[in-house]
């Protein structure tokens, strides 16, 4: 669906995308993770053909981009980072208007818009104005709008940012439905749980380069010890000194919390059972641990 070879994009002396190569298979969900300035949004713009590469080759849906970008975009659905719905139109009018941009006849839109409204759980709000919708409703409408042309490839730029957990869960269910239908998804997100739940593969980017690629499980196995013990409390530093380096394979600090990464968690837990003044959480390693290790950035600086 997407084939990228040695793709670069420079803006003057700044390199936003630096010689990346990857592919996306039909029916796959590929996630892009990275801090601000990693090159994720620029990469999406290159795939859409709205940015011109400085070097490299790019084919989307079997066609060269940007040379045939106009034709390719008729077969792509886009969910932008910020909702750009028309506030002067109702829910259903937004769908009709967007469908006409693709040259879809009214009869075809009449047939498919009711199903899109059901998909977005907005059938009862079809005549509502955009200003009367909640943030989650607007996001679902933007997703439904992106499907108006029955795209082969769907590009989503942070589709659930700013949504409450219930709205986020509904968007996730809808995206899983699309994957089950054979759609191909390319998604940027700063929610690690979202990437773990939805993505078949993840690319971690920083400074325009790909640092690692693989399924969430593969990345966790390759880069992180299996056990993580998060420890916090007033006596955590003295406890670390007393513990020594033998119990934890690797130790990192973030604010008032110490993250102890270990292959064998038992010495850590035995020590903590005697340190009553400390609080701790023992959990398996996850994708957030991979992200922090590879980029050296905490999640708060992601975009």
Describe the 3D structure.
α3 crosses α4 and α8 (216-223) crosses α11 (287-295). Helices cover 36% and strands 27% of the residues. The protein has 303 residues and is α/β, with parallel strands linked by helices. The protein is globular. The model is unreliable at 299-303 (pLDDT under 50). It has 2 domains: 2-220, Rossmann fold (3-Layer(aba) Sandwich); 225-284, Alpha-Beta Plaits (2-Layer Sandwich). A hairpin with a 2-residue loop joins β1 and β2. The protein has a 6-stranded mixed β-sheet, sandwiched between helices. A 4-stranded antiparallel β-sheet has the order 2-1-4-5, with helices on one face. Strands 12-13-11-14 form a 4-stranded antiparallel β-sheet, with helices on one face.
Fold topology:
Layout: E1 2-11, E2 14-24, E3 29-33, H1 40-48, E4 55-60, E5 63-64, H2 69-73, E6 76-79, H3 91-101, H4 106-119, H5 135-146, E7 153-157, H6 165-180, E8 184-188, H7 192-198, E9 201-206, E10 209-214, H8 216-223, E11 227-232, H9 236-243, E12 250-254, E13 257-262, H10 266-274, E14 279-284, H11 287-295
Parallel strand pairs: 3-8, 3-9, 6-7, 7-8
Antiparallel strand pairs: 1-2, 1-4, 4-5, 9-10, 11-13, 11-14, 12-13
Helix pairs in contact: 3-4, 8-11
Query: Structural class of the helices, strands and pairings?
Result: alpha/beta
Strand content: 25-35%
Total DSSP E strands: 14
Report the span from N to C terminus: 25 Å
Give start-end ranges of low-pLDDT stretches: 299-303
Order of H and E elements: EEEHEEHEHHHEHEHEEHEHEEHEH
Mean pLDDT: 90
């Amino acid at each position: 669906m997407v084939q990228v070879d040695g793709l670069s994009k420079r803006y003057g002396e700044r390199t936003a995308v630096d010689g990346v190569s990857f592919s996306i298979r039909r029916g796959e969900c590929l996630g892009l993770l990275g801090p601000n300035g990693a090159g994720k949004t620029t990469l999406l713009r290159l795939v859409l053909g709205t940015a011109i590469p400085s070097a490299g080759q790019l084919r989307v849906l079997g066609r060269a981009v940007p040379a045939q970008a106009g034709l390719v975009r008729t077969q792509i659905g886009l969910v932008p980072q910020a909702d750009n719905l028309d506030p002067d139109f109702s829910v259903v009018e937004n769908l009709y208007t967007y469908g006409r941009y693709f040259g879809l006849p009214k009869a075809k839109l009449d047939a498919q818009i009711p199903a899109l409204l059901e998909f977005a759980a907005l059938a009862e709000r079809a005549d509502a104005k955009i200003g009367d919708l909640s943030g989650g409703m607007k996001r679902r409408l933007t997703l439904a709008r992106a499907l108006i042309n029955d795209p082969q490839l769907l590009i989503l730029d942070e589709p659930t940012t700013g949504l409450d957990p219930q709205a986020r869960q509904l968007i996730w269910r809808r995206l899983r439905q699309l994957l089950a239908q054979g759609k191909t998804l390319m998604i940027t997100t700063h929610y690690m749980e979202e990437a773990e739940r939805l993505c078949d593969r993840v690319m971690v980017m920083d400074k325009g380069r790909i640092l690692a690629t693989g399924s969430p499980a593969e990345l966790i196995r390759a880069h992180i010890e299996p056990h993580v013990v998060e420890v916090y409390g007033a006596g955590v530093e003295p406890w670390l000194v007393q513990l020594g380096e033998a119990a934890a394979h690797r130790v990192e600090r973030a604010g008032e919390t110490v993250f102890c990464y270990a292959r064998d968690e038992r010495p850590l837990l035995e020590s903590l059972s005697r340190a009553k003044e400390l609080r701790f959480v023992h959990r398996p390693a996850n994708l957030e641990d991979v992200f922090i290790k590879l980029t050296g950035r905490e999640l708060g600086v992601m975009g």
